[in-house]
């Protein structure tokens, strides 16, 4: 194949890919309480993406949706009754719908085992007190025995304290 033919084919392919909707490559994570956060790891055309999730355990099924609007390539959904299906056996299918250059709707999807995609919420209301030369760090957890009995026994927080220009800083 000549250099001219190779250059021409490359140019045609480049023009074709510029005018098609690229795959979003959707990924999702959960706080394992009420929400799914989904994002696109591949930047496609500057068009909105609709994300639909269908999650189920052995007995029940819930679904939800959200929309990513560029330049933001993530969205959050809170499917109704989401907490009722949360277990280590919960599976989700997340599907992204997006238009191509001709206006036809295309889709990309992924399957998730939810417990493998947990992004924990940070501790709440952190308090650092000093007394008698000792420090006491306390906080409230977003994960309570009542709300999430699956995770609570397995959670362990690491605390790192460092000095910041003469002040005590908790990170």
Features:
mainly beta; 4-stranded antiparallel β-sheet; Immunoglobulin-like; single chain; 2 domains; 11 strands; flat; 1 helix; 171 residues; 3-stranded antiparallel β-sheet; 42% strand; 9% helix
Structural commentary:
The structure is a single chain. By secondary structure, this protein is mainly beta. The protein folds into two domains: 17-117, Immunoglobulin-like, CATH 2.60.40.10; 124-170, no CATH class. The chain is built from one helix and eleven strands; from the N terminus they run αβββββββββββ. The chain has a four-stranded antiparallel sheet with strand order 4-3-6-7, with no helix packed on it. The radius of gyration is 23 Å and the shape is flat.
Kindly state the mean pLDDT as a whole number?
Answer: 80
Tell me the strand percentage band.
35-45%
**Whole-number radius of gyration?**
23 Å
Helical region count?
1
Q: Helix and strand succession?
A: HEEEEEEEEEEE
- Counted up, domains total 2
Second rung of CATH, namely the architecture of the largest domain: Sandwich
What fraction, in percent, of the residue positions are helical? under 10%
User: In total, how many beta strands?
Assistant: 11
**What is the H level of CATH, i.e. the homologous superfamily of the largest domain?**
Immunoglobulins
Low-confidence stretches: 5-21
Which strand order does the major sheet show? Answer: 4-3-6-7
Examine the coordinates and then state which fold CATH places here, giving the name of the CATH topology of the largest domain.
Answer: Immunoglobulin-like
Query: Which term fits the overall shape?
Result: flat
CATH class of the largest domain: Mainly Beta
**Main beta-sheet strand count, sense and barrel state:** 4 strands, antiparallel
The termini sit apart by 60 Å
Structural class: mainly beta
